[in-house]
Amino acid sequence: MNLFSVSSPEHNDDEHPENAKRVPAIHRVLDFDAIVAAAIRHISPDSYAAATDEQLAAVHDRDYIRGLREVMARAPAYIDHAPTYITPQSFECAALAAGAALAAVESTLHASRSTPHASFALVRPPGHHAPPSHAMGFCLFNNVALAARRAQQLGLAKVMIVDFDVHHGNGTQDAFYSDPSVLFVSTHQSGIYPGAGDAQEIGEGKGLGFTINVPMHAGVGDKGFQRVADEIIAPAADRFQPDILLVSAGYDAHWHDPLASLQLSCGGYHRLGAVLGEIARKHCAGRLVFVLEGGYDLTALANGVANTIRGACGLPIHDPLGPSTRPEPDLTSLLGRLKSLHSL
Ligand SMILES: [Zn+2]
């Protein structure tokens, strides 16, 4: 697994859950976990650069890019009600985070037997709430959407994005809502921020059927996610046959996370990593890129990332936090509705 890392220490607010402690906390676990460390190839930050305005414009409106650069003069400030903060260096940090996601996609094309096809872009600020036209929900540039467009520029025509952050990936959905070349699947807790992602939101125009939303009640955990992976995500991939699989990897669906109430454990993230790795090997010649989104309990975040990597690389689970002890609501009626909506 190639590891790209942009910790953005200058984009920080100690009082905010999305702060500069997050990526270093992940590194501490990855570096001290000998099994994971042996599976990781650290990519030097010298080998990639901040995304250019031209590259950002593959998803974002030029007015927004220009406006965000201009608003840096007013930093530190809040620029939306989530709240999304900026510091004077936030534009550069966000452009570098996006640049790392682009480089992670590029690396999957240069893979060979001795170098891996899978990558993890451990980047922040996160991206999946940012639509083409504005900043939103701690996100400035939509890293995974930019990665999808980069893949297509490189000839990988069909891109599948799976977003397992606890919040709906509204920005990513907006970017591809009428686009049949990108299959977007989002699992999220229903009724929380940002309020989008109803099962009935399935795309429009030529993109009708290429957005799959899986809104889950509070309390759904490992068993429910396993069913979603087996009954929705894998069959959707079999039908779509993507050329590359991108993942908005958020860790706020962990039972220990303070921002939401799904009940995934590190074992659940391990299983997701394994299923997604399997899909990438089956359809995409192994081309798989994880891009970090949320996750605000540092222990759950770091061990969630480690177990996603373990799952994707065929390594065993290591879960210091254990599973949730709460019972899970049954997903049968939601899954039935989704299967009928999407003919799966
Ligand atoms: Zn989130």
Can you characterise this structure?
By secondary structure, this protein is α/β, with parallel strands linked by helices. It has one domain (2-341): Arginase, Chain A (3-Layer(aba) Sandwich), CATH 3.40.800.20. Helix content is 38%, strand content 15%. It is built from 11 helices and 10 strands. Strands 2-1-5-10-9-6-7-8 form an 8-stranded parallel β-sheet, with helices on both faces. A two-stranded antiparallel sheet has the order 3-4. A hairpin with a 3-residue loop joins strand 3 (77-80) and strand 4. Helix 1 crosses helix 10 (298-312). The longest helix has 20 residues, at 90-109. The chain is globular and about 50 Å long. The two termini are 31 Å apart. The mean pLDDT is 97. Bound molecules: zinc ion. Zinc ion binds at residues 165-167, 250, 252, 293-294.
Number of domains: 1
CATH superfamily: Histone deacetylase domain
Task: State the CATH class.
Answer: Alpha Beta
Tally the beta strands. Answer: 10
Return the average pLDDT rounded to an integer: 97
What summary fits the major beta sheet? Answer: 8 strands, parallel
- Measured by DSSP, the beta-strand proportion falls in 5-15%
N-to-C terminal Cα separation, in Å?
Answer: 31 Å
The ligands bound in this entry are: zinc ion
Order of helices and strands: EHHEHHEEHEHEHEEHEHEHH
CATH topology: Arginase, Chain A
Q: Which geometry do the CA atoms define?
A: globular
Give the fraction of residues assigned to helices: 25-40%
Strand arrangement in the largest pleated sheet: 2-1-5-10-9-6-7-8
The structural class is alpha/beta
What would you report as the Rg, rounded to the nearest angstrom? 18 Å
- The CATH architecture term is 3-Layer(aba) Sandwich
* SS element count, helices: 11
The poorly predicted ranges are: none
